[in-house]
């Protein structure tokens, strides 16, 4: 077995690559720059380069896909087509696509949702044995500068909106289970733990909650991700506040990690980080 992790240079794909390598699998990590975690074979490729993507699949039996934070529909469509064509040509036994977010059940006009919805549909219809994993918000977001500081938790959602959270480690465990488990092809697994509101999350951290203006959130995110990616992410928060307050609330009974075990609760995650107590 050889597992290709697309997006291994990022936080989500990197966590998956580290988990699979620690489990003893041969892992090749594809990223645009060629960065990959220690113990993972690095492979530099732009997903828009079909020939280079096909090269990455040499000898590959399984693939985990996390798309980059690009939301232009035609560009994402080409990325997905190149990956699925390469996976089909290589005879991949299982492909797991991480949508990077919970997805509304309809077209929204929000590119960050709609491009991933189209990607998931393409994977499931491709003929490549595929599983889609759909995470909620990540606990690691709480460690970003300015989010939990000075006894205040700042987040761009109203404090009474219920949110299911997931750690990168739990994402990696769920992805491993989806890649290697039986009877999962053609399914979508909704990831996450029991939802908590922002007010409840702040209380667990011994802080007060402050709803962050989405425009301020977008400006801060732009410095780290670039204007296009920041705008795409910010638009999801605007849509949720206006149309989808329950998007992060749902959790399938007992299947939050797709059979990979229990999920880390926000309280447990915070308790393991001394900076949160401060």
UniProtKB/TrEMBL annotation:
Higher taxonomy: Bacteria, Bacillati, Actinomycetota, Actinomycetes, Streptosporangiales
Family annotation (Gene3D superfamilies): NAD(P)-binding Rossmann-like Domain
PANTHER family listed in its UniProt record: PRESTALK A DIFFERENTIATION PROTEIN A (PTHR43162:SF1), PTHR43162
Entry protein name: Uncharacterized protein YbjT (DUF2867 family)
Ranges where the NmrA-like domain occurs: 2-181
Originating organism: Nonomuraea roseoviolacea subsp. carminata
Any Pfam family matching the protein: NmrA
């Amino acid at each position: 077995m050889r597992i290709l992790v697309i997006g291994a240079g990022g936080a989500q794909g990197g966590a998956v690559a580290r988990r699979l390598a620690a489990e003893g699998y041969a892992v090749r990590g594809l990223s645009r720059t060629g960065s990959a975690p220690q113990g993972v074979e690095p492979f530099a490729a732009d997903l828009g380069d079909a020939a280079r993507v096909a090269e990455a699949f040499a000898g590959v039996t399984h693939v985990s896909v996390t798309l980059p934070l690009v939301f232009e529909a035609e560009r994402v469509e080409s990325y997905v087509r190149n990956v699925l064509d390469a996976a089909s040509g290589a005879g991949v036994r299982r492909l797991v696509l991480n949508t990077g977010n919970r997805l509304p059940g309809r077209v929204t006009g929000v590119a960050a949702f709609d491009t991933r919805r189209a990607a998931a549909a393409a994977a499931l219809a491709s003929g490549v044995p595929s599983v889609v994993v759909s995470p909620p918000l990540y606990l690691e977001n709480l460690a970003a500068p300015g989010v939990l500081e000075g006894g205040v938790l700042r987040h761009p959602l109203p404090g009474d909106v219920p949110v299911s959270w997931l750690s990168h480690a739990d994402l990696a465990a769920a992805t491993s289970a989806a890649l290697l488990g039986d009877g999962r092809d053609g399914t979508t697994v909704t990831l996450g733990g029991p939802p908590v509101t922002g007010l409840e999350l702040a209380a667990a951290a011994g802080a007060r909650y402050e709803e962050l203006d989405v425009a301020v959130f977008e400006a801060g995110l732009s410095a780290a991700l670039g204007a296009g990616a920041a705008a795409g992410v910010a638009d999801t928060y605007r849509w949720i506040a206006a149309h989808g307050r329950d998007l992060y609330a749902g959790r399938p009974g007992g299947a939050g990690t797709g059979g990979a075990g229990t999920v880390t609760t926000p309280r447990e995650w915070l308790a393991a980080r001394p900076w949160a107590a401060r």
